[in-house]
Write a structure and sequence with these properties.
55% helix, 21 helices, single chain
């Protein structure tokens, strides 16, 4: 064998040994040969750290944190489920519900300030004062002009009496008032304000007994009210206003268009019926008024009506045939319901002055007038006629009107009227 072959074989051998040494690091320690240890020691440190470092960090952190989550399933959650605060919310809303009605009760007392009747009273007095402005101006201005002297004498008394007569208080009332004034104050000093105060008191004394509201008798079902008066006095409008008043009082109301001679009167009453929600009994134009009244009574009885208001044709007191027809209506009503009509109200136009007194005389004979409604007090300076009617007939004055609006018809108040007509504040 040549040296080169030896040398090549040795190199191959050496190379083989080197490869084996590299591939046998794990078996090195088992052989325990002292010569191979130094050769294996060199590669060992490169392998050992890789093998030693990988498993150590993986094993160390895992076991330590995993045993610690064991305390998580502690019996802390069970007590929460055992307590189960579900009933608590059930009891909580109950006080909330109790608190809710409290605020609802609070707003109810707020509308308690319903002393609105007082402003209504003052509002009516203002309308009355405005409505009687012409009459007030005539009487109050006349008194101021008369009583400029220091003492009450015959001349001033005569002037006062003339003033009261021209203001339509009537001759009898004027004479009575001046006589009473002279009895206490003749030849004594007196001012115009003192005269106004005296007249207001005396007029109130005349009017107080007749200031009677139109009241319904519950025993009458229906309570029949017959409305009479001359043409243009305001019967139909007054009926409509009274119907609204009774309807607002909770009564069941019915109207009968007994003025069968005027189509406008029937239409006007139907308009009032629509406005107030009240039925209106009508017949063809020219139908018998007594027959219509009889039919209206039958309907009112069948429907359980509380109050029946019957309109009649306007007629002059000097037309005997028309007045006889009114008397026939009264007889028919009385035959159907005993004691009816329970009220027969005459509607007077204040602007007619002393003619209103004559109307009451004639109508009372034929229709047994039981009460008065005075309208159109705002139309002239003749409002004193109401005092004349009250003094002569003593009939109840149920209401007065000072305008066309519904609120312009109100129950008669003697004190308000007496003080207003002579120019004194309420």
């Amino acid at each position: 064998m040549t040296d080169e072959q030896k040398k090549g074989w040795f190199s191959r051998f050496k190379k083989k040994k080197t490869v084996e040494a590299l591939t046998q690091p794990s078996q090195g320690p088992d052989l325990g040969t002292p010569e191979q240890k130094p050769e294996a020691a060199a590669p060992a440190p490169a392998i050992d750290p890789v093998v030693d470092l990988d498993p150590v960090p993986e094993i160390d952190p895992e076991p330590t944190p995993k045993p610690q989550p064991v305390p998580e399933p502690e019996p802390a959650p069970p007590p929460k489920s055992e307590v189960t605060p579900e009933p608590a919310p059930l009891t909580e809303p109950e006080p909330e519900i109790i608190a809710e009605p409290v605020p609802t009760l609070e707003p109810e007392p707020e509308p308690e300030p319903k002393p609105e009747p007082e402003p209504e009273k003052s509002g009516w007095f203002k309308r009355l004062k405005g409505g009687l402005r012409k009459s007030t101006s005539a009487i109050s201005g006349g008194i101021t002009g008369i009583f400029t002297k220091a003492k009450l004498d015959d001349d001033t008394l005569e002037d006062l009496e003339d003033l009261l007569i021209t203001s339509d208080l009537g001759v009898a009332v004027a004479a009575k008032l001046t006589a009473t004034l002279a009895k206490d104050r003749f030849d004594k000093e007196i001012s115009s304000d003192e005269v106004k105060t005296f007249l207001a008191h005396e007029i109130e004394e005349i009017l107080s007994p007749v200031a009677v509201p139109l009241a319904l008798n519950p025993a009458n079902k229906p309570h029949v009210i017959l409305m009479a008066g001359v043409n243009g006095a305001g019967k139909t409008t007054t009926i409509g206003k009274l119907a609204k008043k009774f309807k607002d009082d909770g009564k069941k109301v019915m109207l009968a268009a007994g003025d069968t001679f005027r189509a406008a009167a029937v239409e006007q009453l139907q308009v009032w019926g629509e406005r107030t929600g009240v039925p209106v009994i009508t017949k063809q134009l020219g139908a018998d008024a007594a027959a219509l009244a009889y039919e209206a009574l039958e309907r009112a009885l069948a429907d359980g009506v509380d109050v029946l208001l019957i309109d009649t044709a306007g007629r002059l007191q000097n037309r005997e045939e028309l007045m006889a027809e009114l008397a026939k209506v009264v007889r028919v009503i009385g035959k159907k319901i005993e004691g009816a009509p329970h009220d027969t109200v005459i509607v007077l136009d204040a602007s007619t002055g002393q003619n209103a007194v004559h109307q009451v005389e004639v109508f009372q004979k034929l229709a047994n007038i039981s009460g008065i409604v005075m309208t159109k007090l705002d139309g002239s300076a003749r409002g004193g006629v109401l005092v004349a009617c009250a003094d002569k007939f003593g009939l109840p004055v149920h209401a007065i009107g000072v305008g066309e609006a519904i609120e312009d018809l109100a129950p008669f108040n003697a004190r308000d009227f007496a003080r207003t007509i002579v120019g004194l504040e309420g």
